[in-house]
Amino acid sequence: MRPDYKIIISILFIILESQINYPQWIQSNGPYGGYGNCFAINGTDMYVGTYGGVFHSTNKGTNWTQVVNGMNNTNVFSLLVNGTNLYAGTAAGIFLSTDKGGNWNLIDNGLTNTTVISLMNNGNNIFAGTKGGGISLTTNNGTTWTPAGLANESVNAMAMNGTSILAGTSQGGIFLSTDNGTTWTAINNRGLNTNVFSIGVSGIHIFAGTNGGAFHSTNNGSSWVKINSGLTDSIVYSFASNGTNLYAGSRFGGVFHSTNNGTSWTRVINGLTNIYILSLAFNGSTLFAGTQGGVFATTNNGANWTEETNGMTSTYINSLAVNGTNLFAGTSGRGIFKSTDNGGNWVQINNGISLLDGIYSLGVTGGNVFAGTNEGMFYSTDNGSTWTRKGLDSNSISVVVINGANIYAGTNNGMFLSTNNGISWQSKKTGLTATNILSLAMSGTNIMAGTSSGGVFLSTNNGTTWSSANNGITNYKINALTIMGSNIFAGTEGGSVFRSTNNGGTWTVINTGLTSDYIYSFALSGTYLIAGTGRGVYNTSNNGTSWSRVSDGLLPSNILSLLVNGNSVFAGTNGLGVWSRPLSQVDAIKADNYSPSVFELEQNYPNPFNPSTRINYTLSKDAWVTLDIYSISGVRVEQLVNEEQGAGSYSVNYQIKK
User: Do 576 and 89 touch, CB atoms closer than 8 A?
Assistant: First the structure.
């Protein structure tokens, strides 16, 4: 069995000196939306957990304020209010706030697994359902946690029914405990689907949402009845009830309403412009739905829904593009947004595009804007006011590149070329042994294609034929490609950055100073290459020989897209919207003169781990650093660092000794 470890780093600053202070990244005022993963409500205080952290509203969702101070991970899967304590279950453990989200502290001592996907309380007993680690229990507000059963299960949902605890899991169905989690019994009689996403309790009625529809029990789970009449989507992620009104939130069908305990359902989605429902909750008589595209509310039993996303800067920004003074952002679940004031304000522009379409890529030529989605290509001639389809309907389009009259689309089915503004497309995949294309770069008639599993391919005849070009590449998922002079750069998923100086003939890894191996995007500015990574933004002025981290002020996030526009550089994140920073300041920061403004210790990744994990930290000034590994009982296992280090970013790999 793998030992449990916690990581302690102690810093003693020994040199105090003046340093250059650069403007930090600033979060844009939108686009609003994002994944509403979970809710917690306490009187007039309402909270929603997103991939951009926790947002707080005191006026029933009319306005939201981000409250993430102290959180080093903003992927929030679960929330719980117990008295004055607010708990947030994240991908890096549980955080506790005692001041309505104003400040957070990590409380993970003893957690069996730090990916916490459900939370529940029974009085002062707090239960945490984890991904693959079963349930943990605390009786002292999270100071310590102890295992509470269902080891190795992923516990998606928990609920109280009287004195009984119900736990819904990903593989084992629903389990019942009548002794506060000491023992558990599986209650999957009468064909209950064993992949359970949600549990709802109303009086004697228990409802289970699964990947096979909804189920109902009136005898504490001893038997179950399938209740899918009118429920047109069989994947049910959430329940909420108020009196005789029962609601089910589904993956692709929106919200369904029942007044007879699920015997029959009616779909209620008028005004619900995103029907991917992750969570449901009542605040008084108002029902809230957390969707893939933000929060919606209804006060009339679902007859009408209104969007309540003002202030929710938690969108996924997959792509960025510019056309004159128009800045475009392609999102997941919210369609396309446009800004005409350099990101100061954003307007949703989806006339003709479904909000379920993930906007993975954007391309601009003249006054025309192309949008690559998971349902083909869309096209606008009026800067996004209206959109029409432009073919490739059965393809998911990850990248659009425009070179003169040629429009290239990298899809999950190879590359396509249009020479007539998207009227028709030619398949160009001869020789592509891996056809899921994530990135494209070109120089003259030479095209480089990065794929999801086959590495890099080269075409010297405008895509007519392709050949593998992977000599030296050790990671074959190529998220990003760019060309600067005679240098070609490839950003990989887990293998850092590779450079070729001979048109892809050979590649060399270039990662000095680059403490993230996950590269998602590139942008160019003169002699500078800017990289978006799993640890923020980095730059290099010497073709990747050395890198500098330029992420001051940027909350921890994957940088999915980058764009240089005029005097600014924009970063699109996976759950924190759009951020910007003066380009002159990013370009001014070099490996030999940059000092971060704050000390930062990041959550080790992966976590949990077996057999190794990576620990990243940043020093704002020269310091004596000790980095120690402690067991869960407080015994020091190993010392990884004990030396003076200069200001900068560091990455240390720790491997369990057999």
Answer: no
CB 478 within 8 A of CB 450: yes
Q: Which residues contact 408 (CB under 8 A, 6 or more apart)?
A: 399, 400, 401, 402, 415, 416, 417, 440, 442, 447, 463
Kindly report, residue by residue over 434-490, the tens digit of the pLDDT. Answer: 999 999 999 877 999 999 999 999 999 999 999 999 999 999 999 999 999 999 999
CA 406 to chain centre: 33
**What SS3 class is residue 588?**
helix
User: Rounded to the nearest 5°, which phi and psi values hold at 584?
Assistant: -60, -35
Q: For the chain, first and last CA: distance in Å?
A: 11
In degrees and rounded to multiples of 5, residue 55 shows phi and psi of -120, 145
Burial class (CB in 10 A: 0-12, 13-18, 19+), 113: buried
Pairwise CA distance, residues 236 & 529, whole Å: 45
Neighbours of 99 (CB within 10 A): 11
Write out the DSSP string of 155-196. EEEEEEETTEEEEEESSS-EEEESSTTSS-EE--TTT--S-E
The two structure tokens encoding residue 278: 């992750």
Asked whether residue 18 carries a pLDDT value surpassing 60, the answer given is: no
Sequence letter at residue 28: S
588 Cβ contact partners less than 8 Å away, ≥ 6 residues apart: 22
Q: How many CB atoms lie within 10 A of CB 384?
A: 25
The predicted model scores a pTM of: 0.84
